[in-house]
Amino acid sequence: MATSVAPRVFKNFINGEWVESRSGKAYENRNPANTDELVGMFVSSTSEDVDAAVDAAKEAYKKWRLVPAPKRAEILFRAAELLVQRKEEYSKDMTREMGKVLAETRGDVQEAIDMTYYMAGEGRRLFGQTTPSELPNKFAMSVRQSIGVCGMITPWNFPMAIPSWKMTPALISGNTVVLKPAEDTPLSSYHLVQVLAEAGIPPGVVNIVSGDGPGAGAPLAASEDVPVVSFTGSTAVGRLIAQACAPTFKHCSLEMGGKNIIVVMDDANLDLAVDGAVWGGFGTTGQRCTAASRVAVHKSIYHEFVSRFVDRVKALRVGNGLDSATDMGPCINEQQLKTVMDYVEIGKNEGAKLLTGGNRLDSGIHLKGWFHAPTIFGDCSPQMRIAQEEIFGPVVSVIPIDSFEQGIEVANGVPYGLSASIYTRNVNQAFAATRDLYTGIVYVNAPTIGAETHLPFGGTKQTGNGHREAAIAAIDFFSEWKTIYIDYSDKLQRAQIDNN
Length: 500
Ligand code: NAD
Fold this sequence. Notes:
By secondary structure, this protein is an alpha/beta fold.
């Protein structure tokens, strides 16, 4: 007897209601560790759906911007409480759609909780400045003002945390939101929208439209009624977003690719550095924007470090992230796996030394997923493509260096600038590194990953365009300064003229 049950179709959330796409089409969201498992169907939105969501957000903005920020904060606070209650359920769903191990998806949901509480707290703290005027009987101050509809386009590797980094500062600042989540991981973003809806967010203030980049992301970035666009994803797509924003000078925040590095000096605590390289390089299957895909090691300890690093990485257990025995999950999809395999060939052809891994895993427990063995290349030169380009998978390039100065030069010698780390017990070197590494984030004696929500997050060069996420920096992006002068002298007072 047939027992098949139709898969659940997740709809768009527009103006407070879950609605079909005008396209009438839906696409499959499958588990990358087991492609037989259908996580759900998600609607394929078109520009008409995006327009409907933007219209709803534009209308809702008229009232939402006037809601006192502490009241907006109460809704965020309730949403955070709901996330706490559902953390385990949402983490498991995230592992099913994204593949990373449960400990990490719990971390992703926790980051959304932290960010939501943090931004709820900011509701009573949206401080401006009050300052003396240069003229008598005149008052001067600055206040933050909201901007309008914020379009958000997000990647699959942190499918709840990243949408929360964008939505909660936008909302507390009085803006409304249209979110286009990554096509590979829409469910986790839906869960975030669901808790906001349950927490009492008014209709139209938060909207979500699923679909692919060209079909749903591009019309959102280009919409005339969207003055703010916040994007996280690849540098190539970020460039398109910047172009879409340029004609009308939209506020545009871009968080893009990385080629992060751990520098291990000759005086480093080697056990600690190896721990950091394993976690930084292979956590989240190397699919973190902050992943340590390069490790530069001082020549005097190079062989010892590499031998310990390779031993540890050979022991990593690759599998389904819901299995507590698993250390590392699959690549997100077939295309990403292919990219990884292509880079392995590139590395071999460039003359790098393959120390472990280098192959797809596709039998036994790996038969139905997009698995790749954790891979280390040794004896890399800093200019090799595997040491310059973002791979976004479980591949680490180890580069021998002669000195601290060379370590800094290698670290800075890539087109990206997100995160860098140094392992040393020399306090002078540690401080010099924090000064000279030209990245948005620097760690000392810790790997390149591990951002906290109350500090700015983002990168330099082709990683970002000067904005930062999280912390107060996010509120700076999602609000505008308005400077207010109140003259109570009852006469014309000319600044720079009448007081000189
Ligand atoms: P991606 O650029 O392929 O996609 C990101 C988002 O953009 C998705 O929602 C996608 O649908 C959308 N998109 C694609 N084409 C579009 C178009 N033409 N117009 C509008 N939207 C479009 O990136 P990805 O593969 O999802 O994520 C991996 C990348 O994200 C890596 O490069 C990684 O470094 C980067 N990333 C950066 C950060 C950071 O904070 N710097 C954080 C996480 C991920």
